[in-house]
Amino acid sequence: MAKKVNKNNFDIDFTFLHARNLIVVLFSVIMLVSCERQSPTWKQMDIAESLLNTKPDSALAILEGIPAFNVKGKETSARYALLKSMALDKNCIDTTTFDVLQPAIDYYIEHGSPDEQLRTYYYQGRIYQNKGDDDAAMQSFMRGKEYCQEATDTLIMANLMVAQGSIQYSIYKIDEFINNNLEAANLYKIIGRTDYEILSLANALDGSILNNDKSLTDSIMSIAQERVKQKPEFASVIVPYNLSYALSPL
Predict the structure, then answer these.
(1) How many whole angstroms separate alpha carbon 101 and alpha carbon 89?
(2) Over the chain, what HEC string results?
(3) CA 159 – CA 149 distance, rounded (Å)
(4) What is the structure's pLDDT at 28?
(5) Which has more confidence, 37 or 122?
(6) Within 10 Å of residue 24's Cβ, how many Cβ atoms?
(7) Are 103 and 80 in contact (CB under 8 A)?
(8) 21, 85, 151, 201: which could form a disulfide with 101 (CB 3.0–4.6 Å)?
(9) 81-113: per-residue pLDDT in tens?
(10) Contact, 183 vs 145, CB < 8 A?
(11) Is the pLDDT assigned to residue 20 strictly greater than 70?
């Protein structure tokens, strides 16, 4: 006599096996990621990242000293690609191809944190700018800006707004140019980058003078002069706009 199969028990066993297999796969992924982040290459990248804003030449030297065969795994490759793109940019080495950044684009756009996605879109936009493709650059900056609410990298947020502003200036969207630079100046002030803050205020002054907006120009000039009093070494940044303001018909 044939033994009757209990379908309910079969379904339960199948569900259990499926769940167990998912757990095994998830555990394997976690272990793989953990191993990547404990590798000597990852630690070298930690050091390079810590030097990016203070000693970008040293950061680039560390990254270029990592052998290509040590950059293994999608996450490690993505981080290396993004850090090297950042280091090149901070050393004023403009790139016009995506050879370096592409692994970061491939991985972080889908799997990155808000900071990683913000940075990836920003540097993607910078490469498009270097290529002279302002439309594609603006699209990248706009996508990157979507992550500003969640991201914590204030410097990149401000840099992105300045980069957007430079494109807006070139197509005579002066109001947007002014707003982006004022917002960037505020962000630079928050992180203590007075040099960049005053440069952004100077950009905003340029825009307000072009717009013949006396009230806004007076307001920005007042802020800029106050900042220069605190940091006299940056006075030369504002001087040309003092002259433009004095000669303008405002």
Answers:
(1) 12
(2) CCCCCCHHHHHHHHHHHHHHHHHHHHHHHHHHHHHHHCCHHHHHHHHHHHHCCCCHHHHHHHHHCCCHHHCCCHHHHHHHHHHHHHHHHHCCCCCCCCCCCHHHHHHHHHHCCHHHHHHHHHHHHHHHHHHCCHHHHHHHHHHHHCCCCCCCCHHHHHHHHHHHHHHHHHCCCHHHHHHHHHHHHHHHHHCCCHHHHHHHHHHHHHHHHHCCCHHHHHHHHHHHHHHHHHCHHHHHHHHHHHHHHHHCCC
(3) 15
(4) 43
(5) 122
(6) 10
(7) yes
(8) 85
(9) 999 999 999 999 999 999 999 999 999 999 999
(10) no
(11) no
Q: Name the amino acid, one letter, at 62.
A: I
- What is the length of the chain? 250
Contact present, 234 and 202 (Cβ < 8 Å): no
Mean pLDDT of the region 220-225 = 94
Residue with tokens 């002066």: 174
Helices 114-131 + 154-170 axis angle, to 10: 30
In the predicted structure, residue 226 carries a pLDDT above the cut 90:
yes
Using CA atoms, how far residue 87 sits from 61, 101, 116, 119, 140, in Å, is 9, 11, 15, 12, 19
Instruction: List Cα–Cα distances, 127 to 17, 65, 83, 177, in angstroms.
Output: 48, 23, 14, 20
Could you tell me the maximum CA-CA distance found in the chain, to the nearest angstrom?
107
Neighbour count for residue 155 (Cβ, 10 Å): 16
Count Cβ atoms below 10 Å from residue 30 Cβ, excluding itself: 10
| ∠ Cα 99 65 102 (to 5°) | 15
